[in-house]
Amino acid sequence: MIGSSLTPLACGTSNVASQVKPNAPTANEAMGGADLSCKQGSYAEPLVIDLSADKRVDLESQMNAGVAIVRYDCNEIRVLKDCNLAGKYAFAGVSMKEQVISLQNEDELRANLPFSSGSVGAELETGSQLDLALIMIGKRSTAAKVARPVLEGSQCGEATHFVRAATVGAFAMKTGTKGRVAAAVELFGAGTSGQSSAQEKRANKDGDIGSCKTSKPSSDAPPDQCQSAIRVELVPIAQELPTAKKDGEKKDEAAKKDAKPIENPCGAEGFVMVGGKCSRADSGAPHLCDPKDSDDCKAQCDKGDMGSCHNYAEAVFSNFCNDPSKKQVCDETNGAENDRREAEAVGYWRQACDKGDIADACDQIGNYLLTGFKLVKADKPTALAALDKGCQLGKADSCYLLGDSYLKGDEGLKKDTMKGLGLTDRACKLGDQYSCQKLGEYYFKGEYRSKDPARGYEFLGQFCAQGEWETCQELGEHLLGIFDRYDAKMTGVNPVKEVPRANELGRELLDRACSKGKRDDACARLGHVYYVEQKWEMARKYLPTGCKGDGDTCLRMADMELNGKGGPKDKASAVEYWIASVDDKFVAQAAEALEKGDGLPRNTERAAELYGKLCNSENKPACANAKRLDKKVWLDAIAEDCSREDEWSCRELMTADKSRHRTEIDKLCGGASEFGCKELKKLDGAAAKKMVEANCSKERADKSDDDKESCKMLESMF
Predict the structure, then answer these.
(1) Residue 706, SS3?
(2) CB 163 within 8 Å of CB 70
């Protein structure tokens, strides 16, 4: 459950003042005026506590059925019931956060409670404010990355965003006296005390603060009275499908590539996040800065906005020497200024993590202090504590890195499989796609846990529908029992028994990755399956496409063409597949067939070209054939190999064309090639010495340690 509809609390008092109290506030009663101007195609985190009952039901239903696709324009959120994408949301608890915000004018009402309409109530014009108490104990998140090509349904043309996550907990709202700060417990208890006053209005609420306090970050589900949707994370729908990460990249990318500033979650133009609410940017209060404005980030951090501290750290760490205007100072200090600023960034991340509970900052501290850099020493205990805090606050990358370290016994941690799997599972529940994929692989392989292909299929199946074609291919291979089994090209499939219809499903998924995902290796794998089974027509459907990236696939197609398997014999086509295989043996075989006209039209020009491509010190017979058929092709071939420091080819070139040989050797030495300079020294010692001195003079000016070592090596030759 996401939550229930808003319901006014009953009021048992009967005195005179109670008879003139305004009704419990909704945005319908407190809002009005012109629509907000929305930042088109931007990320947003709107409050949804004032959604109507039917819209809450729609949102909950879509999140239970798959990935919720919506149309959002700052003034309205509309769940698109007939725009579908397979997927699921999982709950992960976080450290409980309690927040009280006060909406003091019409602008703030519209910016923070944008999904209702009506006229502005008089209460906000007579010294009142709308107080909101928010208790947040977890998130329901999806690991989906949504792109338009995989959406299905009649309403998908209207789609702008998908719901990546819903923060859940409890909330209460009531009108109160402007300037008076109410406590959360007071707002949750409002309307039940029996007191009566024109400034003590009845309140709307959903959930119970006591129930929320029983939740823990390790909880698998929210308490019954603490599961209302508070905010939703709305992510713009991508126009193109994402590129999946490769195995082994995640741990480094979490620190070096995936680090991102905190973007403004207010969807309306001219509004910024101020103390948990969207307010006008010109209000003067400390606010979350624009990550592109490092000066404002520094100013807002100094005023106390911890999100801005994180953004400032990101700016000074990542961008200083990448800024063209800072190039001179970076060059003059040989990077020392950049090192100083990196150390400065760590200080701001510490501040944001320790004082502001900014999960992204904790994650950065953890990542960088594991290894340290230049002016900042490694501090693994502090790093691991920061990662643990980031994970508890809901940062999936922190959970993954910590979990992976426990699984492998890295970073000074004692290997703990159960703890590592638990943290990886938490990262998955927090919406990290890579972690979900790794869990699926662990189940299929029996890595870190007992094998359970059915659970592996449960984890990985959703990503195929979302257009993650690499995962789709791997899942198909797992189901057919050919994942990481290259001998399957000879022995065939061994479908897993734990998944019904695994044989058919595996083939369907490989076909989808091949045809829709345009993955040549998926075509190759499926083609090999049918080749081994001698289902020639099906093999012919997939092997030609797979040949683009796999030599063995080309050779199997050559075999089928040569021997008439699934079609007429075609020697010319077989020769083309031999050439496409880039296997030296079969390319030479193709060249010989073309030279002799064996079963196909004779073509000595192309034969010479192929011999030339094979010509090098390892294939002297091909060089001899190229020279026999076309001397120019042969000269070009040995010149190219000489340029790659092939000693035999250089000797052949010197014998055949001394001028061209000298040209290639000059190029090599001019490029600081030790081989090239030694060869030039044999030909012209003075020229070689002059070139080495010129190279080293330039390289020393570049202040590269590698170039300095290169100079020492080259100068030692004279």
Answers:
(1) helix
(2) yes
Pure H helices in 417-535: 417-429, 433-445, 453-465, 469-480, 488-491, 502-515, 520-532
Higher pLDDT, 258 or 64: 64
CA distance 523 to 550: 10
| Residues whose CB is less than 8 angstroms from the CB of residue 531 and which lie 6 or more positions away in sequence, other chains included | 489, 539, 543, 556, 560
* Other beta carbons less than 10 A from residue 411's beta carbon: 18
List CB contacts of 344: < 8 A, sequence separation 6 or more: 313, 316
Q: Which residue has the higher pLDDT, 33 or 403?
A: 403
Confidence of residue 190 (pLDDT cuts 50, 70, 90): low
| Residue 302: strand pairing partners | none
Question: Tokens standing for 355?
Answer: 């004082």
Q: What is the DSSP string of 105-131?
A: SHHHHHHHSTT------GGGGTTEEEE
Average pLDDT, the chain: 85
270 conformational bin, left if phi > 0, alpha if psi -120 to 50, beta if neither: left
Backbone angles phi, psi at 592, to 5 degrees: -65, -45
Give residue limits of the domains in the chain: 7-241, 432-538
For residue 452, the surrounding DSSP H or E stretch is: none
Q: Give the angle 613-615-617 at the CA atoms, nearest 5°.
A: 140
| Predicted confidence (pLDDT) per residue in 547-582, tens digit | 987 899 999 999 999 999 999 999 999 999 999 999
Residue 694 CA to residue 300 CA, distance in Å, equals 52
Residues 6 or more apart whose Cβ sits within 8 Å of residue 48: 56, 59, 77, 115, 166, 229, 230, 231, 232
Q: CA dist 386 to 312, 398, 632, 661, Å?
A: 19, 9, 66, 61
* Radius of gyration of the CA atoms of the chain, in A: 33
Straight-line distance from the first to the last Cα atom of the chain, in angstroms, rounded to the nearest whole number: 80
**DSSP 8-state assignment for residue 289:** P
648 token code pair: 């035999």
Short-list 206, 234, 282, 281, CA closest to 1: 206
- 7-21, 320-334, 478-492: least confidently modelled range: 7-21
Architecture of domain 432-538: Alpha Horseshoe (1.25)
Residue position matching structure tokens 């695994």: 502
Alpha carbon distances (Å) from 563 to 492, 557, 571, 593: 21, 10, 9, 16
CB atoms within 10 A of CB 480: 26
d(CA 638, CA 655) in angstroms, rounded, equals: 11
